Amino acid sequence: MSELAPATLEGWYALHQMMAIDWPAVRSMSAVDRATLRSAAAATLAGMDASGEEGWSGAYQLVGGGADVMFVHFRQTLDDLARVDMRLRRSRVGAALRLDYDYLSVTEAGLYHATAEAAAQAKPLSKEYEQLLDEAAAAERASAHIQTRLFPRVPEGMRYISFYPMSKRRVHPDNWYSLPVADRNRMMREHGLTGRRYAGRVFQIITGSVGLDDWEWGVTLFTKDPLEFKRIVTEMRYDEASAKYGEFGEFYTGVQLSAAELGALFDID
Hints:
The protein has 269 residues and is α+β, with helices and mostly antiparallel strands. It has a domain of 102 residues: Apc35880, domain 1 (Alpha-Beta Plaits, 2-Layer Sandwich). The chain is built from 10 helices and 11 strands. The strands form 2 sheets. The chain has an 8-stranded antiparallel barrel, surrounded by 6 helices. A hairpin with a 6-residue loop joins strand 2 and strand 3. Helix 4 runs antiparallel to helix 5 and helix 4 packs antiparallel against helix 7. The longest helix is centred in the N-terminal third of the chain and has 19 residues. It is elongated, with a radius of gyration of 21 Å.
């Protein structure tokens, strides 16, 4: 029998879009057209964030990373996410942007502990096991902490963002997916305790993307001090779950933009 997959809880769907501005096209515009583009960019972001759908959108000026702007969208359904994506692509500002990279996922809370506990009390995948897991999942979903993880709202003043995708290693002898669920639970608990030391300093959103994108999870961090990104990632790399089993993609770091600040990016001196 294969090892047990942990139960998970899901919330909002998420889309991260790294966009490069078409600078030659913007420079070739008349002053009037650039002014129109500036207004359109501001209106597009304001409209996405006040669209009446559950969730939110944000824009961040990237520093390095190849692209210029990262748009982050959270929506209740994949259909809602598809609509906001298409609104941006079809907008006037969308014509001045080129997609450099995007990442589709859904907010996730992994129930490693509940899965391990259920497996210790009942035969895995039995009716009793499933009932224990369902009860634990319902209790977790009702907690304020889990609600914040599934339907996240960034605390006021956390202007800086860092996003990266990651997966768990599947190469012998360090194959995460061949480990007993109790071992995975222990390592994830230790990993989580490291992250909790940064509570109030770093706001973290974990999104799952197995079956949705090339990587398995997305990690989005927000803070008031960008050096906190370096500190938390460094410390967590020493946890066994990362040191032995973590695989990481590119990092994207940026600064939050208001609607007016997004529009001002298109100003040419």
